[in-house]
């Protein structure tokens, strides 16, 4: 370890500290190491040094106070190879990332306003979700495909101005690729790829992720080609049109906006906006279905606040303290992006008194915040009281950072929060969700990957008597 580098377990030649991790799910090991070495410690993936950042204090010092030093992205990991360093999620800290991030935030904001607002798009998609659930009344159904397609369609409407039927081949292929890659990318084979350059050319399972990415790239390429044929300059229908207009505007200044970038950017946004939201919704309905007293209390609040209204609006959340607490508690236990997206130091820097050289891999362990002792009333159980004060009002503890923090924080947070609220409230208002008698004990342990997801489950659906 370099001088004054964060401590960590014994380093072995060639393997580094990799033997301290269970490669198919290292989360429990990372917690065990935090207990031994403190909130800032180091690991070596082969010869590559990494610093694991845990707990609110260290996370804020790194990602907010010293944001500039800690906002890079490593450029030589497997995922960067898969996406050929394009897009925004994995772009290194610098002008290309900044320009693209600003552009996406502005475009998402513009599509959030006006007549065909984001709320309308979400409610539009909810009609199909409701239809799917109505067809399942009296039977037990698996909600996986439904929630993946709903989240995917909401972002597809913003990106491509279109939605897909739930059995459409395009969307089936894309979602299959996304869900596979979400598990491959933080999985054991990729960990080996990132740690040991010698294995990179072997025909190991990580090559499937590259193929999946290429498949999606080709499909999206077709959509961009179609847009180019039909678009009218200055009258953007969606994100693709806005970006193509932007390429036109910036054609002379050596800009980083290009069609190749656009395709990777679309895949980034589509993936980042689908797998995360749908896995959080799956977690929400797993808990709501298996904890009927919580479901009923949400429904009482929803009925009271929405009495006489056709549909929920995002503004209604301010009158729904309990519902808000439940959704946030779902996000806390869902821990959907457990190790965030890996960061990297942009220059030699310091963290909690330790020295960290430029180029060090930084792993923000968001898991450590979401169950940090001292930050939560009930860190290790599902309990909406974690977000309620003595008066029963909704409060958000500072350790609630499922979207991370600082300049690289999730740029889809606003959209994701709106989706989670409107979808959960609308479905709970209309239906009662029941855990099937023959389904056995619910399994709350998540399946590990770059995103965590619940194990597949089934639920029964009944129309609500009040509807
Ligand atoms: C429950 C849903 C979601 C969760 C929990 C989540 C969480 C995260 C996290 C932890 C990061 C990494 C931040 C960092 O590196 O510090 C991230 C980045 C990102 N997310 Fe989300 N996300 C969600 C939904 C969305 C949606 C709906 C979109 C699409 C609009 C989106 C787009 C992005 C993008 C583009 C980045 C990269 C930002 C950058 O590198 O500058 N996310 N998200």
From TrEMBL:
Keywords: Heme, Iron, Membrane, Metal-binding, Monooxygenase, Oxidoreductase, Signal. It is found in: Membrane. Transmembrane segments: none annotated. One of its GO terms (molecular function) is oxidoreductase activity, acting on paired donors, with incorporation or reduction of molecular oxygen, reduced flavin or flavoprotein as one donor, and incorporation of one atom of oxygen. Heme binds at residue 410. Its cofactor is heme. Belongs to the cytochrome P450 family. InterPro entries: Cyt_P450, Cyt_P450_CS, Cyt_P450_E_grp-I, Cyt_P450_sf, Cytochrome_P450_fam2. One of its GO terms (cellular component) is cytoplasm. One of its GO terms (biological process) is organic acid metabolic process. This is Cytochrome P450 2F2-like.
């Amino acid at each position: 370890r370099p001088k004054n580098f964060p401590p960590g377990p014994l380093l072995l030649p060639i393997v580094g500290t990799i033997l301290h991790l269970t490669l198919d799910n290292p989360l429990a090991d990372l917690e065990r190491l935090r207990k031994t070495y403190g909130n800032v410690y180091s690991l070596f993936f082969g010869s590559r040094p990494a610093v694991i950042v845990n707990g609110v204090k260290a996370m804020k010092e790194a990602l907010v106070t010293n944001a500039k030093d800690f906002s890079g992205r490593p450029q030589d990991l497997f995922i960067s190879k898969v996406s050929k360093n394009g897009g925004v999620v994995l772009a290194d800290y610098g002008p290309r990332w900044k320009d693209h991030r600003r552009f996406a935030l502005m475009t998402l904001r513009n599509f959030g306003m006006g007549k065909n607002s984001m709320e309308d798009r979400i409610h539009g998609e909810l009609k199909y979700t409701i239809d799917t659930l109505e067809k399942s009344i009296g039977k037990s159904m698996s909600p996986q495909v439904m929630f993946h397609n709903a989240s995917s369609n909401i972002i597809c409407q913003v990106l491509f101005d279109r939605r897909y039927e739930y059995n459409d081949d395009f969307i089936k292929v894309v979602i299959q690729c996304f869900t596979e890659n979400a598990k491959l990318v933080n999985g054991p084979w990729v960990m080996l790829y990132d740690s040991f350059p010698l294995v990179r050319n072997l025909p190991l399972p990580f090559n499937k992720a590259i193929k999946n990415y290429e498949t999606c790239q080709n499909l999206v390429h077709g959509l961009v080609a179609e847009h180019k044929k039909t678009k009218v300059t200055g009258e953007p229908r969606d994100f693709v049109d806005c970006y193509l207009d932007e390429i036109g505007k910036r054609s002379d200044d050596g800009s980083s906006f290009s069609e190749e970038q656009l395709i990777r950017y679309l895949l980034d946004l589509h993936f980042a906006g689908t797998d995360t939201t749908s896995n959080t919704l799956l977690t929400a309905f797993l808990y709501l279905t298996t904890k009927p007293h919580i479901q009923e209390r949400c429904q009482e609040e929803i009925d009271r606040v929405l009495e006489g209204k056709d549909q929920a609006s995002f503004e209604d959340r301010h009158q729904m303290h309990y519902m808000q607490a439940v959704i946030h508690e779902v996000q806390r236990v869902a821990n959907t992006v457990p190790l965030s997206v890996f960061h990297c130091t942009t220059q030699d820097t310091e963290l909690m008194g330790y020295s960290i050289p430029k180029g060090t891999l930084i792993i923000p362990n968001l898991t450590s915040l979401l169950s940090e002792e001292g930050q939560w009333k009930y860190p290790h159980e599902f309990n909406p009281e974690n977000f309620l004060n003595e008066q029963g009002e909704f409060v958000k503890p500072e350790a609630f950072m499922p979207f991370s923090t600082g300049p690289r924080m999730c740029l889809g947070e606003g959209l994701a929060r709106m989706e989670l609220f409107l979808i959960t409230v609308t479905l709970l208002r209309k239906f009662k969700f029941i855990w099937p008698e023959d389904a056995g004990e619910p399994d709350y342990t998540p399946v590990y990957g770059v995103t965590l997801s619940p194990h597949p489950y089934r639920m029964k659906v009944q129309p609500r008597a009040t509807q």
